[in-house]
Every structure is written in C-alpha cells, then in structure tokens.
C-alpha cells in the first residue's frame, strides 16, 4: 500500500547509502519498479473513497486502554437476526444464560415487535426471573408507534430494561428509505424518543428501572454535523442529567472506513456533544472491511464508553465486532475484561449449538489451530520458551502460573482459557527438531540431547516428506520406539539385555556380568572397565559383537567409540525412572541409543545396547 503523504522513494536517503560500493555484483537486484502491480481491470469507477475527518489535534493515537469498556452483547438481537434459521426459544435461553454466566451486564435480548418468538422470549426471561438484578436487558425497535408500544409492553416487570430506538440518518437512507430531508429524518428520531417515554410512563411500573438508547443507524456514512444534530435533538427530548443517562450508540452499520477514521469520528462526537457527562457513548462496529476489532479498540481510545458486539463476531453480513477477541485482547495486555473466558471451549460449544454455526480453526483465541505451531523455528522457540519459564520458576521457587507470560509466538497461555498444551506443537513437513523433541518431552518425559534431536528429526522428516500430512504424537512415539527401543512385539537387533550385575574391584574398576541374547543365542557377557558402560563395551567387544562393524574391514573388529553420555530422571519421587542416552561412533557413522529404567545403571546399559543395535541394523 502507498499513502499519499509518504515521501517518494527517491526523496529520502538511500537505504544502502552505507553499503560498500562493490556490494551488488552477481544477479540483478530486485527494485520497486520490477515488482509494479498492473491495473486489475475491475470497475473501480463505481466506488468512492470514504470521507476523512479534519481533526489535526486528535488525541486518541496517544491513549492506552487501561480498563474494560461497558459491554453489550447483541447476540440475541443483531446476531440472531443474521441467522438463516433464527434461534428457537430453547437456544435463545441457552445463549442468554451463557451471557449472564460470562458476566455481561447489558444484553440486547431481541426485537420484540418483530413477532411472537422474540416477544415471548422477552416475556419468558422476565416471568421466569432469569434476569439477575445487576443485568440490564435491552430491546430494539424502529421509530414507529405501533412497534414502540409493543416493544415497551414486552418489558413489563423487568428489573432493569432499556429501549433502544434507531433510525438511519445517512444521506442515501434519507433519500431512498425515508424519502425526506434532514428535518424529516431528525423528526423521526425525536418523535420516536417521545413515544418511547410516553409508553414507558404508561405501561411500566416501579418494578422497572428504565433506560433509553438511541442509534443514528449508518452513523459511518452520516455527515458528522447531522449525526450531532440528531443526537442533540434526541437528548432535548430525553433530558439526560445526573442519574438519568442516555446511551448514544454510533453504529458502523456497514464498516466503510479505516479504524483511524472511525476513531476520529468518535473523538469528534465526544468533543462536540453537549451534556457529555450524562452520555454513555457507545460503539457498534460491524466487520465489512475486516477491521471491526481495531475499530472498536480505537473508538474506545477516542472516547467510547461502551462497545456492542457478539461472541465470535456473529452478526449481519461479515458480523458484529467479536466480543471474545476484544475481551481477550485486553486480557493479553493485563487488563481485566470483566468477562470470564477461562473455559473458552465450553463457550464455543454453547455458541455453536445456539447459532448452528462453526467457529473457524483460525479464529483468534479459540479456533482449533490458534495455539498450534507446525513450523520448525516457531516450535524451537516455543520449546525453549517453556523451558525458560520452568527454569525461572525453579530459580524463584514459585509455580509457572505466578510468572509473567513471556512466550515466543503464543500471546496468551492456552491454559488461561482452559486449553491444554497438547496441541501447541504439531508435526508435519515444516517442523524441525524442536517440535518433535517437544512432543517427546511433553508426552514421554524424554529430554533428548541436542544431537540426538537432530538425528531423530531426520527420521521423522523423511517420513513427512515421503507421506505428507501430519505426524501425530502417537505416530512419533511409535517411530521413536521402533527406532531406538525394540519392543517384544516387534523385536530386532543383535543384543537384548536380560540382567546385569556389577561389582567394583579394589583398583576402582567395574566388573560386569550381563545375561543377554546375542544374535538369538542366550549368552553370558563378561567385561571390565572404569565404569559400567566401559565394562559393557568391553564385554561386547570380547563377545565379538563389534566384529565386522561398519567402517572396518570384513572380519575385523571395527572402530567403536563412545562419544557422549547423558542421563536424566523422568519423574520425581518413588517409582521414578531414568533415561540414558549414548552417542556411539562406529567407523565414521554416529548412532544414538536410548535406555529407560528405574535403575540408572541398567538404563545406561540399555542405551548402549540400543546404539549398538542401531549401528548394526543397517
Ligand atoms: C441495522 C439493523 O440491524 S436495524 C435492525 C433490523 N432488524 C430487523 O429489522 C429485524 C426485525 N424486523 C422485523 O421483523 C420487521 O422489520 C418489523 C416487523 C419490525 C416491521 O415490518 P414491516 O412493518 O413489514 O416494515 P419493514 O421492516 O419492511 O419496514 C419498512 C418501513 O419501515 C420504515 N422504517 C424502517 N426503519 C425504520 C426506523 N428505524 N424507524 C422508523 N421507520 C422505519 C421504512 O421507511 C418503511 O416505511 P414505508 O413502508 O413507509 O416505506
Ligand atoms: C440497530 C443498529 C444499532 C444496528 O444494529 C446497526 O446499525 O448496525
Ligand atoms: Mg448492527
């Protein structure tokens, strides 16, 4: 993208001014001219750019959001009206109860004058006492008398209720829908407000605390001076004052501008509205340009007190702004959203039941794949990130949950929203050693030495390159066992250990006796060395196992060297097991072996057998 205010590429200092003069010998360098886009041929003449706002002293870009705005969920109204098959009463109730449980204090529960379903639903939650004392329900209506009367009627007996009245104010709606000018359209809002007050006075009693909300629909395409004029006219009727707020909701009914212009419009309205201290300024972004979340956040920075939206961005066309993303964006910055998202999968399941829709796999914070990394460098960084957190926790003597979350590639800890680490790393052809060893560590407590990680990841990569697709943790484990740990059901290898006994001589050398199966024959192996591993090597050598080893001439003893030995415990406490890793050079080839046992000596002998078996397997 290029912006008209940017300096032209040639007007600034050259990026490569400091580069040596002889830098670009060889292939022709890419330049801006060589990547020029071509005209698309699409009918751009049919569209006009949106109006920007002349607000050079705008203040919102420098603000931070330090507290959650008021939230209104309109899942049961704007969300519901956009469904092919609107929610049944049972599904509506399920959604209402979910919203209450999550902590929403303002819930738009329907458009009661639309028909019996919505009207009866509003009556049912009132009559069944399902609305907690601290929750305000709101209902939407057009500015038409018969609709207003029916709307107010639906609220009788509600503890806290708001009537929300709207009419479109943008030029094309004035001309096409209402076939009038500014005066007529302003009058619709004024008359509607008066009627709401009259019917509330007539129909509601002192069981109800009553509020009022007005929306100049299509605010985004309405001239700012006219939007202000209509809102002022509405306020002149409602008369907001201390203890009598008015909610002025400025909807991006169709998202038409960048979030920055949306924010400018909010700052302009917030500065110019009279009686501002009695106004709850509310944003209602839709997502036509795909930037509703940014638009909502910038509107809050620009003065909005409240945001209306739907869970997971349900709503007309591309949806309303996503309340879950907004809330968890705040959470990820250390700001309490005031909504409990700690069981995100439960929320998603209920939402999917109610809406009969699916949350896509890449949906922020909740999609199946959003805490998953397939690519090698991401996996490597995440694995190191987890290890660093664990080390820090041990150093500071606290649990990992107490530490600030600083983790490559994962903006929040999946556990904080009730997800597990199971899917954090998944392996396919784009994965590297970090991811594969993360799976082994996480699921099998095996912390492979770095060079062994490289060896095993080549084995997995050969498989993903040949077969494509994902390799599941189960398949990784099977491949690992097949490669390093011959199991009784699939035996292979020249040496199978049965039992071993060591004794130390007075020179500090270990004498070792091993009962093993060698080349299918029960054999007693005897050796000595300065430690059990060296003694086992000696025993294998004496038994002729290394004869004909790769890298040696046939019939001779090949060169077999121990290069590295690593061990670690696999779990703490009684019954803990140890893992041992051996790096073996046979001729010019390197083979790792692994052994696991409750006894560390036996684990290391098993690791030697594993490496030797692999060396001779080929
Ligand atoms: C951006 C939004 O989400 S706005 C909310 C939209 N949601 C809904 O519409 C869902 C519920 N609506 C309904 O079920 C129906 O529209 C009803 C039952 C409320 C009304 O149905 P109808 O009486 O058939 O009217 P309809 O919806 O077609 O509206 C058209 C008439 O209302 C007028 N009108 C539209 N909006 C408004 C408004 N906000 N205030 C006053 N009049 C309005 C139109 O100018 C038109 O008038 P005309 O017949 O004189 O030309
Ligand atoms: C009724 C209004 C607030 C609305 O939903 C919109 O303009 O998008
Ligand atoms: Mg809407």
From TrEMBL:
- Catalytic activity line of the entry: 3-methyl-2-oxobutanoate + acetyl-CoA + H2O = (2S)-2-isopropylmalate + CoA + H(+)
Q: Does the keyword Amino-acid biosynthesis apply?
A: yes
- For region Disordered, the annotated ranges are 1-44
* Amino acids binding Mg(2+): 78, 284, 286, 320
- Enzyme type, top EC level: transferase
Cofactors needed by this protein, per the record, are: Mg(2+)
Protein name per the record: 2-isopropylmalate synthase
Q: What's the stated role of this polypeptide?
A: Catalyzes the condensation of the acetyl group of acetyl-CoA with 3-methyl-2-oxobutanoate (2-ketoisovalerate) to form 3-carboxy-3-hydroxy-4-methylpentanoate (2-isopropylmalate).
Keywords assigned by UniProt? Answer: Acyltransferase, Amino-acid biosynthesis, Branched-chain amino acid biosynthesis, Cytoplasm, Leucine biosynthesis, Magnesium, Metal-binding, Transferase
> Can you cite a GO biological process for this protein?
L-leucine biosynthetic process
| Known EC number | 2.3.3.13
Q: Where in the cell is it found?
A: Cytoplasm
Q: Which family does it belong to?
A: Belongs to the alpha-IPM synthase/homocitrate synthase family. LeuA type 2 subfamily.
């Amino acid at each position: 993208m290029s912006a008209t205010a940017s300096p032209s590429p040639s007007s600034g200092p050259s990026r490569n001014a400091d580069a040596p003069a002889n830098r670009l010998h060889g292939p022709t360098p890419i330049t801006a001219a060589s990547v020029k886009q071509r005209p698309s041929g699409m009918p751009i003449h049919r569209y006009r750019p949106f109006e920007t706002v002349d607000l050079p002293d705008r203040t919102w870009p420098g603000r931070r959001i330090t507290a959650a705005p008021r939230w209104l969920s309109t899942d049961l109204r704007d969300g519901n009206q956009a469904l092919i098959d609107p929610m049944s009463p049972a599904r509506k109730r399920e959604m209402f109860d979910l919203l209450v449980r999550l902590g929403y204090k303002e819930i738009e529960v329907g458009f009661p004058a639309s028909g019996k379903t919505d009207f009866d639903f509003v009556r049912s939650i009132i009559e069944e006492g399902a609305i907690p004392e601290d929750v305000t329900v709101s209902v939407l209506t057009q500015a038409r008398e018969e609709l207003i009367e029916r709307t107010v009627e639906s609220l009788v007996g509600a503890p806290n209720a708001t009537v929300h009245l709207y009419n479109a104010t943008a030029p094309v709606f004035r001309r096409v829908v209402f076939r009038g000018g500014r005066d007529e359209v302003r009058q619709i809002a004024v008359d509607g407000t008066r009627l709401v007050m009259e019917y509330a006075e007539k129909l509601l009693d002192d069981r109800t605390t009553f509020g009022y909300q007005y929306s100049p629909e299509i605010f985004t395409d309405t001239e700012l001076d006219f939007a202000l004029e209509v809102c002022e006219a509405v306020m002149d009727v409602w008369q907001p004052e201390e203890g009598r707020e008015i909610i002025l909701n400025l909807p991006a009914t169709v998202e038409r501008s960048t979030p920055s212009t949306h924010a400018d419009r909010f700052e302009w309205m917030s500065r110019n509205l009279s009686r501002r201290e009695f106004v709850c300024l509310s944003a209602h972004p839709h997502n036509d340009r795909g930037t509703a979340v940014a638009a909502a956040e910038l509107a809050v920075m620009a003065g909005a007190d409240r945001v209306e939206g739907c869970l997971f961005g349900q709503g007309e066309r591309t949806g309303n702004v996503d309340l879950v993303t907004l809330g968890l964006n705040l959470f990820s910055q250390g700001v309490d959203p005031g909504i409990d998202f700690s069981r995100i999968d439960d929320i998603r399941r209920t939402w999917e039941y109610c809406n009969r829709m699916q949350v896509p796999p890449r949906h922020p914070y909740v999609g199946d794949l959003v805490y998953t990394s397939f690519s090698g460098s991401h996996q490597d960084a995440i694995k190191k990130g987890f290890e660093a957190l664990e080390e820090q926790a041990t150093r500071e003597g606290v649990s990992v949950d107490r530490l600030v979350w600083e983790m490559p590639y994962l903006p929040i800890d999946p556990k904080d929203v009730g997800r597990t680490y199971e899917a954090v790393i998944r392996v396919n052809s784009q994965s590297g050693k970090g991811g594969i060893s993360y799976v082994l560590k996480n699921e099998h407590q095996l912390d492979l030495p770095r060079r062994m990680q490289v060896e095993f990841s080549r084995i997995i990569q050969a498989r993903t390159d040949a077969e494509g697709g994902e390799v599941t943790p189960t398949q990784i484990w099977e491949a690992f066992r097949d490669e390093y740990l011959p199991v009784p059901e699939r035996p292979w290898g020249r040496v199978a250990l049965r039992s071993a006994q060591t004794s130390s001589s007075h020179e500090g050398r270990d004498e070792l006796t091993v009962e093993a199966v060698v080349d299918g024959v029960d054999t007693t192996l005897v050796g000595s060395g300065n430690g059990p591993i060296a003694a086992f090597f000696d025993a294998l050598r004496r038994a002729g196992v290394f004869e004909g080893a790769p890298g040696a001439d046939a019939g001779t003893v090949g060169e077999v060297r121990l290069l590295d030995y690593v061990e670690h415990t696999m779990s703490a406490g009684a019954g803990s097991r140890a893992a041992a890793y051996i790096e073996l050079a046979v001729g010019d080839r390197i083979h790792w072996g692994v052994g696991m046992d409750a006894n560390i000596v036996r684990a290391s002998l098993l690791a030697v057998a594993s490496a030797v078996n692999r060396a001779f397997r080929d």
